[in-house]
Amino acid sequence: MKILNPFVxxxxxxxxxxxxxxxxxxxxxxxxxxxxxxENASVVQLIIDWEGDDSNYHEELSxxxxxxxxxxxxxxxxxxxxxGASGQYTHQFVVSPALPDEITGxxxxxxxxxxxFKDVPASQEIIIEA
Length: 130
Prior knowledge:
Layout: E1 13-25, E2 28-38, E3 42-50, H1 57-64, E4 67-70, E5 76-85, E6 88-96, E7 107-112, E8 124-129
Antiparallel strand pairs: 1-2, 2-3, 3-6, 4-7, 5-6, 7-8
């Protein structure tokens, strides 16, 4: 049984952590440029870029719209919001407790799902190492 954690709202802005890391998988570019640091949480933004085609816009967006961040049992990662257009999708994750100010060597595991309910195993996993 999974225990539900209360939603943490980032509070007490401290600043940005530069990340500037990316990986390309199957002609799709995944990047984390920065992390917003707060006293009680961190906000990780994943940017997904691909060669967009307006003719199948909705299909492309649905391929990138259901993503989860897994940083292990120490961190609760909530996909707060996402938005996109043809060729790009951005996800914003609230991570609590806050990540350390030194993230060198940390692995960000993003899991792509075929459904919003995440009731089946992830169809793809993307790792970005800081």
